[in-house]
Design a protein that fits this description.
The protein is of the alpha/beta class and 197 residues long. The protein is 20% helix and 28% strand. The structure holds adenosine-5'-diphosphate and zinc ion.
């Protein structure tokens, strides 16, 4: 009944353009008269409840879902393309669902942060990346020096975050920046340098 399915992963740091790429692909599918559904986890309430909004303000409607089971429930039979924003926030079950969908003929596009602010692989991203048909890794511009940036740096009250800082810090002024390898910092974990013998 359907075409051959596929799984595409769009990843990179914050500000890399993941939302823009996902929205661009969703729009192209809509021009092709294909049925598209866009989902996002409920945790991501940045800017707008029912929309995906890129940092430049490009918008697309997205259905907020609580978890993988709710996402699976919300997929329509007639849908051709399933897009998932902020996919790093779902549990490992998202990988199974993405594979099932792709194997059943859906075109699946997921976008997410590949690394957290400590530069650890984020949630289900390693599995998704390994199993994808296509991987798009985007880079942002380092907000400190202007080089290409692959990391997401977390600042708390203007200082580098500590590696053990909780994800939610009440009352602290915090900011996330795209940073290159050289400008990236994390307190409690100095970069290990290789010294040739
Ligand atoms: P992501 O979903 O990866 O966080 P978005 O698609 O929301 O990224 O936003 C990408 C856009 O943000 C870029 O096209 C650019 O216009 C803008 N932008 C703001 N700060 C930066 C930066 N430091 N590096 C690259 N783009 C940036
Ligand atoms: Zn830099």
């Amino acid at each position: 009944m359907k075409r051959k399915g596929s799984l595409t992963v769009v990843c990179g740091s914050m500000y890399a353009g993941k939302s823009e790429e996902l929205i661009r692909r969703a729009r192209r599918a809509l021009y092709a008269k294909r049925k598209v559904q866009v989902f996002k986890p409920i945790i991501d309430t940045r800017y707008d409840e029912t929309m995906v909004v890129s940092h430049m303000g490009v918008k697309h409607e997205a259905v907020p879902v609580k978890n993988v089971a709710d996402l699976a429930q919300a997929i329509d039979k007639e849908t051709d393309m399933v897009c998932i924003e902020e996919v790093q926030f779902f549990d490992d079950g998202i990988t199974d669902l993405a594979m099932q969908l792709a194997d059943s003929g859906y075109e699946v596009i997921v976008a997410g942060l590949d690394q957290d602010f400590r530069r650890r692989p984020f949630g289900p991203m390693p599995q998704l990346l390994a199993l994808a048909d296509e991987v798009i890794k985007l880079r942002a511009i380092c907000m400190n020096c202007g080089e290409e940036a692959s990391h997401t740096y977390r600042a708390i009250n203007g200082e580098p975050a500590h590696r053990d800082d909780p994800i939610v810090l009440v009352g602290a002024l915090e900011a996330y920046e795209a940073r290159c390898r050289r400008c990236y910092r994390l307190r409690g974990e100095p970069k290990k340098r290789f010294r040739p013998s």
